[in-house]
Amino acid sequence: MSRADASASVPAPRAPGSSLDDVPLSVSDLTVAYHRRPVLWEVDFSCGRGHLVGVMGPNGAGKSTLLKAVLDLIPRVSGRVSIFGKPYAQQRHLAAYVPQRESVDWDFPVNALDVVTMGLYGRIGWLRPVSRAHRGEAMAALQRVGMADYARRQISQLSGGQQQRVFLARALVQKADVYFMDEPFAGVDAATEKAIIRILHDLRSDDKTVIAVHHDLQTAQEYFDELLLLNMRVVACGPTSEVFTQENLQKTYGGRLTLLDEAAHAIGQQARSGS
Fold it and tell me: What share of the chain is helix, strand, coil (3-state, %, to 5)?
C-alpha cells in the first residue's frame, strides 16, 4: 500500500463504484519534518469501516506524530488526509482523539464528569451552558467504561488506568465514526486493558473505525484486525494475518538509520530546489 516499499502489503482495491466517500480515513503522501529533519516520509494508507487498526513501530518511528498530523495538531510538509472523502478540517466532527496520558496536565482542577463533558463542547458550543441532558450523556459514557462511581472525583486523584478510562469516555461521548488513540494500553492495569478491549470490540460492532498506536508485539495479533507497521515510512499495512510476519517486523524495527539518512537527503534536496 505504501509507495515507499514495494514489498509492503497492499490492501484490496475498493469495489467498483466505491469512492473515498466510503473510506473512514485516507492518507496520501504525508510527510512531516521537524527543523527539516524528516519524522514521517511519504506515508500512504487507508482504513475501512469497522476495523481495529494498530499502528506499530520502534521508538521514534513517528507513530504519535502520524496521529497528530492526521488531526491537524502539527503542520505537514506535504500530504492529504480525508475522512469519508473530505478534508479533515471539514470532517473533524466525525473524529475523536484519545491522547497519551503523559501529554495531559492531570493537575488541572476538574473532576471526571467535567472531563467527559468536554467531549461535548463541539456540539454544545464554547461558552454555552451545559444542560442536564449533556451531563446525562457524559454520565452514560462514564458508566460504559466502568467509571460512573468516580464522576465527582478530581481527575488528579485517579489512578493511571482510571484516568485512561475517563479519556476514553470523553472520546465515546462524541459519538464519532473514527477514533484515534495514542497508546491506550500504556501503563494501565489488567482490568482497564480488558475494559478498553471490550469497548474497542463494541465500536467495531457499531461499524466504527479505530486507529490506535500500540507497542506490545505480543498482543498485536489478538487485539487488531489490521496493522500499520511504521518506521518513518509505511513498511506494511493490511490484515494482521498477512502483515505480522518476521520479514516485515525485521524491516520495521531495524534499518532505521538508512531510511532516515535517505529521507533527510531527499527533503534537503526539495528545500534547496524550492528556495
Answer: 45, 25, 35
Give residue-wise pLDDT tens across range 27-78.
999 999 988 888 999 999 999 999 999 999 999 899 999 999 999 999 999 9
Cα dist. 252→96, 142, 208, 245 in Å? Answer: 27, 37, 27, 11
CA–CA distance, 85 with 228 (Å, rounded to integer): 20
Alpha helices in 71-189 (DSSP H): 88-91, 112-118, 121-124, 132-144, 160-172
**Which residue reads 471539514 in cell numbers?**
90
Of 119-123, 159-163, 254-258, which one has max mean pLDDT?
159-163
19: left (phi over 0), alpha (psi -120 to 50) or beta: beta
Beta-carbon contacts of residue 20 (< 8 Å; ≥ 6 apart): 26, 82, 84, 85
Cα–Cα separations (whole angstroms), residue 233 to 33, 65, 138, 207, 243: 12, 12, 38, 28, 15
Residue 102 pLDDT > 90? no
pLDDT of 264 reads: 54
Question: What is the radius of gyration, based on Cα positions, of the chain?
Answer: 19
Alpha carbon distance, N-terminus to C-terminus of the chain: 32
Question: Is-above-0.70 flag for pTM?
Answer: yes
Which of 135, 101, 133 is closest to 118 using CA atoms?
A: 135
Taking each continuous run of H as one helix and of E as one strand, the counts in the chain are 11, 10
Task: Return d(Cα 82, Cα 91) in angstroms, integer.
Answer: 8
User: What is the per-residue pLDDT for 37?
Assistant: 87
Residue type, 166: V
